[in-house]
Amino acid sequence: MSTHELHGGAKPLAAVQLHKVVRQFGNQRVIDDLDLNIAPGEFVALLGASGSGKTTLLRMLAGLDNIDSGQLRVPTARAAVFQEPRLMPWKRAWKNVVLGLRVENAKARAVAALTEVGLAHRLEAYPATLSGGEAQRVALARGLVREPRLLLLDEPFAALDALTRIRMHELIIELWRKHNPAVLLVTHDVDEAILLADRVIVLAQGRVAEQVRVDLPRARHSGQPGFQRLRAQLLGLLGVEVETGDVEQNPRYSHG
Ligand SMILES: Nc1ncnc2c1ncn2[C@@H]1O[C@H](COP(=O)(O)OP(=O)(O)OP(=O)(O)O)[C@@H](O)[C@H]1O
Ligand SMILES: [Mg+2]
Q: How far is the CA of 130 from the centre of ligand 2 (A)?
């Protein structure tokens, strides 16, 4: 037992603890003896090939799917946002935000959450009248209103245009800083992972194949020293060839 545990401080050691977790469909072990910890308030990005089990993992963490064996510990207060906003078309924005939430001051809570995502003026709107980015912000507000200690994001920006995606990146970081949940963000976009996360993990064969800590100061941008080196490293881990001429010189490999 570590000294941290002996001290028994108010802060738990990990927001997420997975030990030897297995999930299989038929003969296919999609998640295979997976060990993974996420610290309270840590922002983790999850990369991996299509079909590597990212959504399966996220669904288990969200409590939407069971594990077959192993141990999984997650906070009760958790929320998930997916690639599509999954709003009820016949309910106004604010009602979607507090759907299923049993609290007395529901509307006030919805208004506060929608204000945080910049949608105070769209409280009464029906989903069909919202843009893709607005709908996704309603989905985010629906997550926030539950005051999650773990926020699970499965490619939430993938369907958005480039400019909206940049705004969403800024919003996510702002909200993360303010509320400080642990975040697990599934993405296919290596740049997005480096821009947002404290740590990037690569899922392969049902396990954490690689992980890289991102120590770049925020707010980040792709021209920052070290950014391109990390990018090349992660693309390499994902099996994508990169033109090394475009990449900053890594002293270990320089011949000059
Ligand atoms: N309910 C299910 N029944 C059977 N097989 C499933 C089920 N859910 C997922 N799978 C299989 O598990 C594997 C992992 O799927 P998953 O959706 O987790 O991948 P992913 O990493 O999220 O992929 P993508 O990047 O394309 O979203 C796939 O081979 C998929 O077909
Ligand atoms: Mg997926």
A: 24
Percent of the chain whose pLDDT exceeds 70: 89
Residue bearing the bigger pLDDT, 252 or 54? 54
Ligand 1 pocket, Cβ-based, cut-off 6 angstroms:
25, 30, 48, 50-56
How far does residue 95's CA lie from ligand 2's centre (Å)?
27
Long-range (24+ apart) CB contacts under 8 A made by 7-14 are 11/40, 12/40, 13/37, 13/39, 14/38, 14/39, 14/40, 14/73
The Cα–Cα gap between 247 and 228 comes to 6
pLDDT in tens, 10-21: 556 799 999 999
What angle do the packed helices 106-116 and 132-144 form, to 10 degrees?
130
Which pLDDT does position 34 carry in this prediction? 98
Question: Could you tell me the residue ranges of all domains in the chain?
Answer: 78-147
- pTM of model > 0.85: yes
> Residue 9 pLDDT more than 80?
no
The pLDDT value given to residue 163: 93
Helix (H) or strand (E) segment spanning residue 21: strand 16-25
Nearest ligand, measured from the Cα of 48: 1
How is the beta sheet containing 69-73 ordered, strand by strand?
Answer: 28-38, 16-25, 69-73
- Residue 251 pLDDT greater than 70, yes or no: no
**Are the CB atoms for 213 and 199 separated by under 8 Å?**
yes
Coil vs helix vs strand at 89: coil
Per-position b or e across 58-79, b if 16+ CB within 10 A of its CB:
bbbbbeeeebeebebebbeebb
- Smallest CA-to-CA distance from 85 within 146, 142, 169, 126 is with 142
Task: Give yes or no for residue 198 having a pLDDT over 50.
Answer: yes
